[in-house]
Amino acid sequence: MYFYKSIYPLKDILIVGAGSTGLSSALFLSEAGYKPRIIEKRGTISSITKALGVNPNTLQLLEPSGITKRFLQNGYVLNCFNFWHYGKLLYRNDLSKVKHAYPFMLVQPQCDTENIIEEALLERNISVERNTELISIESQDTVTKLSLRKNAGTTEDLNIKGLVIGADGNKSKNDELNPEIVYADYPRECCRKSADAKPQHHETRGKHLRHN
User: Fold this and answer.
1) pLDDT at position 196, please?
2) Contact at 8 Å (CB) between 39 and 132?
3) Can you name the residues that pair with 39 across neighbouring β-strands?
4) Which domains does the chain have, with CATH numbers?
5) What is the DSSP letter of 65?
6) Beta-bridge partners for 70
7) Helical spans, DSSP H, in 54-127
8) Is residue 212's pLDDT more than 50?
9) The sheet that has 144-150: what strands, in order across it?
10) Could you tell me the CA-to-CA distances from 128 to 34, 36, 79, 152, 193 in Å, in that order?
């Protein structure tokens, strides 16, 4: 995620990208009293799931908006992870022992997550403008200048005196345009680990997740 902010108050807010990050940003801004504009170059929500789990802190953050209740009604609770390697149990992570209001991971397809948040935004009179692509952006002290291309081939020029949030993923248009960016610092060090994993027990749960 990247941010462009002018010196003016946040009268105008544009969110580029309507994945789970962009939609969640719009939801939190709405809860704070803002009405952001969201654009998305795709015509529909993607059926490809890149994230199956909603973590405890996310559930807690979304609780005031009512989204957590909808998530819990839709997904299913994962209490434990077992990591195996060639028949040997390497590690067991029992999330039920975590001291948290939601001591588990909630499992649901990413498209479900995005659908639920988008429905909540529509209830707040915030809609996603699909088939709308960012084609240029220039950050200045007093304004952020952008050009958008719509499905019909028409273009729209914008001068945003506020905030532009880029949430358009790892193939961000920003990587092509490469302007100056303001990144938010995160105080923790993070790393990624991979392991051959399989579940210790297979249980039919009434809901089936299919990843194509």
Assistant:
1) 36
2) yes
3) 16, 129
4) 1-48+128-186 (3.50.50.60), 53-108 (no CATH)
5) G
6) none
7) 56-62, 67-74, 110-123
8) no
9) 132-139, 144-150, 155-160
10) 15, 10, 34, 17, 35
The pTM of the full predicted model, rounded to 2 decimals, is 0.77
DSSP string across 89-102 = EEEEEEGGGS-SSS
Tokens of 104: 């588990």
136 vs 208, more confident: 136
More confident residue, 129 or 182: 129
Location of structure tokens 């220039």: 138
Amino acid identity, residue 21?
Answer: T
Of the listed ranges 78-87, 113-122, 162-171, the one predicted with least confidence: 162-171
Phi-psi region of 50 (alpha: psi -120 to 50; beta: other; left: phi over 0): alpha
Taking the alpha carbons at both ends of the chain, their separation in whole angstroms is 26
Identify which of 37, 48, 102, 50 has the alpha carbon closest to the alpha carbon of residue 71.
102
Q: Are 166 and 2 in contact (CB under 8 A)?
A: yes
Question: Which residues have CB under 8 Å from 53's CB, separation 6+?
Answer: 78, 105, 106, 107
Tell me the C-alpha distance between 211 and 50, whole Å: 9
Inter-residue contact 141 to 7 (CB < 8 Å): yes
Name which of 28, 40, 32, 39 is nearest 9 in CA terms: 32
175: part of which helix (H) or strand (E)?
A: helix 173-177
pLDDT digits (tens, 9 = 90+) for 118-150: 999 999 999 999 999 999 988 887 888 999 999
Name, in order, each residue with C-beta under 8 angstroms of 24's C-beta and a sequence gap of 6 or more.
62, 117
